[in-house]
Amino acid sequence: MTTQTTPEAADITALREALVNTLRQQGDIRSDRVADAFRAVPRHIFAPQASLAEAYADDAVITKTNDRGHPLSSVSAPWVQARMLELSGLGPGMRALELGSGGYNAALLAEVVGENGEVVSVDIDPEVTDRASRLLAQTGYNDRVTVRCTDGTYGAGEPAPDGGFDAIVVTAQAPDIPPAWTAQLARSGRLVVPLSFRGIHQVFSFAHEDGHLVSRGQTRCGFVGMQGDNRHGGHAIDLSDGDLRLGLNDDQQADGAALRTALASGQRSTIWTGVALRGNEGVLPSLDLWLVSTLSPCARVYASSRGVERGLSGWTIAAAATWEGGTLAYLTIRPEADGFELGVHAYGPDREGLAARLADRIRAWDDGGYRGTVEPVARVYPAGTPDDQLAPGQVIDNRYSRLVIALS
Ligand SMILES: C[S@@+](CC[C@H](N)C(=O)[O-])C[C@H]1O[C@@H](n2cnc3c(N)ncnc32)[C@H](O)[C@@H]1O
């Protein structure tokens, strides 16, 4: 007997196959197991508000926003889901915990771990868990995925299976690694988490090593922010009538009054580095990671469009900054023939010295051949670990953990 496929079913199969091909070509999918998962799960069912083309595009579909229009929940972009699945090291029969639900990624996880595996998917938002449960039932994954409404800061919300989860996949931007994540991770497991530090968003895959976690792989991507007890802290200092702000982590301080006075004086040193930034080269993330791994203190300034009009900065992109007392130096750009040139603006009593130091760092990144190739090692120690037990690197002190970032 032959089965007739409706044109729509054929379209959907073709769209899904095209997505797999794109993700393979981009290097996001590396294994047949992950490719088969993307082939099997009907992404459009988990994104009913999107057209078929949108559901199978390599882009996120926003499913919930707050009253200011900021995304609270989404079906994440396929490329990052594929990379995170690859980073998780999951395979048949393994146990996975997803923190930040929606349904689609949980179904992908269920495909990867197979009939003998186990998937727990939790979300802090009951609207999201209700929706995920309904869509997982509609697609037949409800007996392979356990959905729970709880604050993922504390892990699975119930005791982890004996021996822990083989992978914990966090799908909201986390500022910190709470103890439950380390405790619920199997000895040989992987914690895949989009981590924010010093204004940078980087997905790391962590493994246990000698009482702490060490990164074994990474990729660059931003997610919607975590809510609950592991939500983002940090604070911003207004430096010039709201047109230039310095964003700091909770373990950083700066003398806002002195820096505002420096900006208000209008006295500035600028150094153009001779280092080019070309069109679509996409090297800024590598410069950001290099600076955060080698420069202390390091944070980011944010210029508004009016700040750019006022000449405070050449761009509205978050720019690496360093400071000392009442002196601040930060990255800027100016257009040149086929792209931009990186430079440094500095205000304050030691503006020439600090501008020169930051400009030297930028040239060292360029001369050292780091364009596009920076993958720092991140280590996570429990809060309170003494300094002499930390690996060398830049230390970021969070509420639950001490994060150490180093070039190798
Ligand atoms: C990008 S969405 C998840 C996407 C989903 N994994 C998918 O299938 O594509 C991020 C989710 O994290 C959830 N979330 C934020 N903070 C959380 C927390 N502390 N615990 C659990 N879930 C949280 C949000 O409610 C949101 O639904």
TrEMBL record:
The biological processes this protein is annotated with in GO are: methylation
What molecular function terms (GO) are annotated for this protein?
protein-L-isoaspartate (D-aspartate) O-methyltransferase activity
The terms describing its cellular component in GO are:
cytoplasm
Q: Which UniProt keywords are listed?
A: Cytoplasm, Methyltransferase, S-adenosyl-L-methionine, Transferase
* Any Pfam family hit: PCMT
Q: Where in the cell is it found?
A: Cytoplasm
Q: Is the Cell division keyword given for this protein?
A: no
**S-adenosyl-L-methionine in keyword set:** yes
Coiled-coil intervals, chain numbering = none
Top EC category: transferase
The cross-references to NCBIfam families, in alphabetical order and at most eight, read: methyltran_FxLD
Member of which family? Belongs to the methyltransferase superfamily. L-isoaspartyl/D-aspartyl protein methyltransferase family.
Query: What name is this protein filed under?
Result: Protein-L-isoaspartate O-methyltransferase
